[in-house]
């Protein structure tokens, strides 16, 4: 009987794994991953090569930065007139606020923005953050309104520009969020009266544009007030935006509540938790986590919708820009540059909000994967 002697046969070497990090792998995956992506990328590059030189010439090379209306008129059609921003930036940013007192809205706005940034950092998520909100809001309205501490009193109809935009967006978001949760829970309530009332509120608000809500809050609502009673137009507008935003946000929250499995409710009942305990500790944290993109999308929409308050003679950022240019015939032809300026301001805030939303989603996904 012959024995078979095993022979060693080496396995052919396998190629090394491709890198998944870095610029080249990202380009290969996102821009050249398929024939369709490759064609689209090449078309966009061709358009950029054809279009960008003219844009650079208009926006940079031939642009006028100095606040000289004659030079800007001479460069029309050739270069941008950024001099309109140099000349009118104070009126665009602060609106009709008294010129000599514009340090007050500047300080108030910086304090509000710093508060918003601090509220987004986990380190500051402490009980004293609520007190900080109260202090900053008190500081904001004290500086803006004046009438105390030797500050000149400034009526709310003279507030405008970026401070008004940030204040309306911040307060409407802060007030609309808890209201939307209550409305969403009310729509899912087993009590017919509460469910019907919340449904009517949501459907009525969603059935009309925000301009109609602002118009009614500013011009129609005072007609129903007792004679001699007057509510400041800024308060009425803030209430209108808050109610409008809460109606849309309530449907987002309700979608998150409906996504929670029935077993979560049964588990809460088995633990003996009350209705509010179950929703505060189990249901709402999960529901809100699933609809973070929708909630942030609504926040961004609220921030941009503040531009509609111009209809009630409150000149926020967009309205202040129109006021600054329409009142001066020398700078009126350069609205494109002014619109690009305020578009950049809106983009900075909206982009920051979207990136923060992505950070929250990443943190939530990390906690789920533990």
Considering the chains and any ligands shown, give keywords for the structure.
68% helix; MetI-like fold; 1% strand; flat
Briefly characterize the structure:
The chain is mainly α.
Describe this structure in words.
- Helices cover 68% and strands 1% of the residues.
- It is built from 15 helices and one strand.
- Helix 5 (103-119) packs parallel to helix 7 and helix 13 packs antiparallel against helix 15.
- The radius of gyration is 28 Å and the shape is flat.
- The mean pLDDT is 87.
As a percent range, the share of helical residues equals 55-70%
Structural class: mainly alpha
What's the architecture of the domain at 158-315 and 357-368, going by CATH? Orthogonal Bundle
Poorly predicted residue ranges: none
What's the total number of strands? 1
How many DSSP helices?
15
> What do we call the CATH homologous superfamily of the domain at 158-315 and 357-368?
MetI-like
Order of helices and strands: HHHHHHHHHHHHHEHH
Largest sheet: none
CATH class of the domain at 158-315 and 357-368: Mainly Alpha
In the CATH scheme, what's the topology name of the domain at 158-315 and 357-368? MetI-like fold
N-to-C terminal Cα separation, in Å? 61 Å
Mean pLDDT figure: 87
* Rounded Rg: 28 Å
What fraction of residues sit in β-strands?
A: under 5%
Quaternary status: single chain
Q: Outline, from the CA principal axes?
A: flat
């Amino acid at each position: 009987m012959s024995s078979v002697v095993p022979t060693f046969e080496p396995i052919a070497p396998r190629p090394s794994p491709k890198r998944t990090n870095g610029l080249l792998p990202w380009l290969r995956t996102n821009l050249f991953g398929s024939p369709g992506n490759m064609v689209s990328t090449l078309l966009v590059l061709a358009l950029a090569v054809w279009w960008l030189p003219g844009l650079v010439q208009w926006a940079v090379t031939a642009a006028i930065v100095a606040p000289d209306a004659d030079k800007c008129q001479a460069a029309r059609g050739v270069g941008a007139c950024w001099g309109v921003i140099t000349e009118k930036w104070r009126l665009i940013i602060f609106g009709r606020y008294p010129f000599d007192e514009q340090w007050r809205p500047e300080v108030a706005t910086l304090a509000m923005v710093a508060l918003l940034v601090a509220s987004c950092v986990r380190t500051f998520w402490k009980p004293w953050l609520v007190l900080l909100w109260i202090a900053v809001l008190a500081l904001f309205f004290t500086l803006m309104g004046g009438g105390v501490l030797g500050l000149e009193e400034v009526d709310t109809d003279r507030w405008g520009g970026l401070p008004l935009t940030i204040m309306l967006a911040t307060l409407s978001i802060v007030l609309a969020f808890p209201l939307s949760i209550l409305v969403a829970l009310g729509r899912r309530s087993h009590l017919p009266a509460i469910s019907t009332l919340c449904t009517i509120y949501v459907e009525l608000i969603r059935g009309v544009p925000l301009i109609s809500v602002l118009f009614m809050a500013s011009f129609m609502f005072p007609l129903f007030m007792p004679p001699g009673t007057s509510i400041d137009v800024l308060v009425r507008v803030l209430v209108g935006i808050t109610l409008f935003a809460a109606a849309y946000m309530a449907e987002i929250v309700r979608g998150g509540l409906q996504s929670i499995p029935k077993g979560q409710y049964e588990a809460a009942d088995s633990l003996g938790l009350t209705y509010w305990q179950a929703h505060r500790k189990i249901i709402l944290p999960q529901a809100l986590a699933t609809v973070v993109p929708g909630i942030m999308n609504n926040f961004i929409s609220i921030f941009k919708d503040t531009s509609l308050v111009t209809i009630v003679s409150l000149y926020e950022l967009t309205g202040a820009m129109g006021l600054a240019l329409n009142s001066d015939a020398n700078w009126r032809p350069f609205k494109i540059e002014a619109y690009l300026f305020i578009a950049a301001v809106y983009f900075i805030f909206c982009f920051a909000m979207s990136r923060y939303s992505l950070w929250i989603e990443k943190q939530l996904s990390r906690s789920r994967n533990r």
